[in-house]
Amino acid sequence: MGTKRMRVLVTGGAGYIGSVVAADLLQAGHQVVVFDNLSRGHREAVPKNAELIVGELADRNHLDQVFRLRAIDAVMHFAALIEAGESMKAPEKFFRNNTANALTLLEAMLAAGVKHFVFSSTAALYGDPERTPIAEDDPLRPTNAYGESKLLVERMLAWFHQIHGLRYASLRYFNAAGASRPDQGEAHQPETHLVPRILEVALGRAEHVKVFGTDYPTRDGTCIRDYIHVSDLAHAHLLALHALEDRVLEDRALKDRALKDARENSGPLIYNLGNGEGFSVRQVVEVARKVTGHPIPVIESPRRAGDPAVLIASSEKIRRELGWQPKFPDLKTMVESAWQWHRNRPDGYPK
């Protein structure tokens, strides 16, 4: 079935992943309204043809106004605090910002009759996994408050689906990396993600990179993570949004038939997003050394609280159901694209 052109509200659309998704939505013919408080995002990262509204998700009156005046068809929710280490020092910030604000957003959506929701979730839901690669039906046992704050949102979504008929997709990503466009790259303040931290050393902005934990039960003692190119991540979001809309069209076609209640694919869309291959911290550093030609000195530091040893995704479900296929699965390609962006913009986005 064809997917209609939609007006999509992208919360956190000035951030790393949200801005790339916003640009892809525009390229696909949708209209985009970005809602961001710019505390962690960057005005310059917002695509030129998207409308930017600066606001707080905790402000229900402002959200109601946005939904009332913009005729929003769907919401993609990226706005969140994302630093797992910080969540173990100030969990209250994460439950207020990630969980409570998501509830306010969902209430405003329902009040406006908007029932398409794509949620930026996380592999942190799984905690220390019993097996790898991790499947969507594996136990959800976060080991940090960040993961718990996102899990609580997923639990809310399940109840909203059951009681209010919310149509939602929850995309549990692993480690996003790379740059998709010359004007959109990864720049957090402060920077906590491994690839940009490594590249800061190559740019001369830092003397060394810290490796947190070298005594994990892995092949070289450092954490192993599954890296996914941000462009592949963005494509999965569009596939999920279009799948939600197609299901609504199918349900309308089936509204007078008993088949509607028996359809197997009427439930929420829950998918892992990763490459299915893990790379250790030491391996990522070594790839970056080859890409940049810089020695990139390493300082070994103690483990961070709540960091699992290994997180590798099984993405077979989204490949099978939505036809998603990563175009840039190679770690070297991800690091090269990130390096090109950082080298062209050594100071990141303007403050």
Provide an overview of this structure:
The chain has 351 residues and is α/β, with parallel strands linked by helices. The protein has a single domain, classed as 3-Layer(aba) Sandwich (Rossmann fold), CATH 3.40.50.720. It contains eleven helices and 13 strands. A seven-stranded parallel β-sheet has the order 3-2-1-4-5-6-10, sandwiched between helices. Strands 7, 9, 11 and 13 form a four-stranded mixed β-sheet that branches. Helix 1 links the parallel strand 1 and strand 2. The protein is globular. The protein starts with 6 loop residues before the first strand and ends in a 7-residue tail after the last helix.
Please outline what is shown here.
By secondary structure, this protein is of the alpha/beta class. The chain is built from eleven helices and 13 strands. The strands form three sheets. Strands 3-2-1-4-5-6-10 form a seven-stranded parallel beta sheet, sandwiched between helices. Strands 7, 9, 11 and 13 form a four-stranded mixed beta sheet that branches.
